[in-house]
Amino acid sequence: CNVFFVMFLLIGQISSTAPSVSPGGTDVTETSTMTVQGKDSSPPQSVRLNNGTSRCSGTVEIKQYGNWTGICLDFWNQQAADVVCRQLGCGLVLEGNFGALNRSTAADWPTVGNATDLPANQSSVVLGPKLLKVNCTGTELDLKNCLLDSVSLHRCYHSNLSRVTCNEHRDIRLVGGSTRCAGRVEVLQYGAWGTVCDDLWGQEEAQVVCRQLGCGFAVAALGSAHFGKGRGEVYLDDLNCTGSEQYLWDCPAEAMSDCGHKEDAGVICSEHREMRLTGGLDRCAGQLELYYEGRWRMVCDISWGNYYSDIVCREMGCGSSRNFTSFFHNSADNWAFYCVPNVEYHLWECKRSLGRPHLCNNITVIGIICNG
Q1: What's the rounded Cα separation, in Å, for the pair 162 and 156?
Q2: 7 in Cβ contact with 103 (< 8 Å)
Q3: What value, to the nearest 5°, has the Cα angle with vertex 348 and ends 338 and 357?
Q4: Which of 35, 82, 236, 237 is the most buried (most CB within 10 A)?
Q5: What is the structure's pLDDT at 156?
Q6: Lowest-confidence range among 60-69, 85-94, 207-216?
């Protein structure tokens, strides 16, 4: 009886681990990852465009074994780029950096078989120290469907990574301000720049713009063409952002706009920086004030010298410094700067601190007279 019981357990264990057979005759298990007719059955999100200004532009990266890896330029071509744009739902290829195998370079590569004799329509994907040969016809639904085999070792520098811009790519910029972090909001769509209407324009929408541009947080959301009237189409109207969107065009908006350019929206972000001289005879003389994070502040005179004043005058288009002096001011919320002569040529490149009473304990601030 015990013998039959042991045989029963063994048969049950073997049955539970043996592969089942699909109707087509292919062995499958619940835990296996299948390759069907040469196509990878992994989740579809296996490719992305990174370090671009939208999800439809950037460096091509493919996900292999849980890691995102760049694709070498050397064999990258239009057919592979077509697959990427289509897979991401980004339309057609607008532009890309397409490489060709350089014989003099390839001669130095360790190779396997005829890796240096790949046809022109094949690409190479970095996978750790290996390359994967890619043969895309341009009709595949997933870039991973193009992968064939590991072919050689290669060092692929970042300057040689493949980049693609698809025609669904969008971009954003601020125009008309004194820095890239303040100005009229303009959006690139289908290869042409247009503007955004100020209807319902507010802090949440401005916050998305500033974050998208890497300009910190929104200080002011402005309307009525504060930075001047733009040109082209008014692409976005009645935006309703929460402030957490990655891109401005992710926000709900009206598809058609009835706005004119007198209603163009604008933004001032916290990383917008300005300088001015106030209280003098003209714009090239007076008390130095700096604008940052939405506020004008003065600069205390600790360690200040002629080199610092020359930087300010030059950046303001006022020639060189004639003289500088100190003024009493009853505020501890001032800037302090330390610049290295002949190394730092812009004031914001210098080491700086804000609101440090122990550095500005005499509460005297700088005034400058320029030659301009």
Answers
A1: 10
A2: no
A3: 50
A4: 236
A5: 57
A6: 60-69
Helices (H), 26-150: 78-87, 103-106
Tokens of 117: 């004799």
pLDDT tens digits along 101-154: 332 333 333 332 233 333 344 444 444 444 455 678 888 888 888 765 544 445
Residue 128: Cβ-neighbour burial (10 angstroms; 0-12, 13-18, 19+): exposed
pLDDT the model gives residue 280: 93
Contact 339, 307 (CB under 8 A): yes
Residue type, 326: S
Q: What local confidence, expressed as pLDDT, does residue 37 receive?
A: 30
Interatomic CA distance for residues 291 and 294, integer angstroms: 7
Return the DSSP state at 353: E
Contact between 221 and 265 under an 8 Å Cβ cutoff? The reply is yes
Q: What CA–CA distance (Å, rounded) separates 291 from 113?
A: 63
* Residue 108: per-residue pLDDT: 32
- Mean predicted lDDT score pLDDT of the chain: 77
Spacing of C-alpha 285 from chain mean position: 39
Instruction: Look up residue 263 and give its DSSP letter.
Output: G
Distances (CA, A) of 51 to 22, 61, 305: 43, 10, 40
Q: Which comes out higher in pLDDT, residue 171 or 27?
A: 171
Band the pLDDT of 75: cuts 50, 70, 90: low
Distance CA 208, CA 269 (A): 10
Q: How far apart are the first and last CA of the chain?
A: 109
b/e per residue 20-59 (b: at least 16 CB within 10 A): eeeeeeeeeeeeeeeeeeeebeeeeebbbbeebbbbbbbb
Tell me how far apart the alpha carbons of residues 177 and 276 are, in angstroms, rounded to a whole number: 15
| Angle at CA of residue 240, ends 236 and 245, nearest 5° | 90
- Tokens in use for 293? 């994070």
Specify the pLDDT at position 99: 60
**What domains can be seen in the chain, in order of their start residue?**
45-166 (3.10.250.10), 170-269 (3.10.250.10), 274-370 (3.10.250.10)
